[in-house]
Amino acid sequence: MNPRYVSVAILCGVLLLNIIFTQYVVHQYYHENYVNVLIFCGLNLILFPIAFLIYKRDRKSEGGN
Question: What is the pTM of this model?
């Protein structure tokens, strides 16, 4: 499989996790489980730099800026 396709698949997985975590944060906030809100908000914040690093690595291997 082309490395570019692998990177796109991983980024799609990260996006899916972001959507799931955000939905879970909203749900837990509604039910006033604030510890779970903070945990999943933190996980959501951790996923952004991971996605950014994957994107940068893909752009670097492509030869782009």
Answer: 0.84
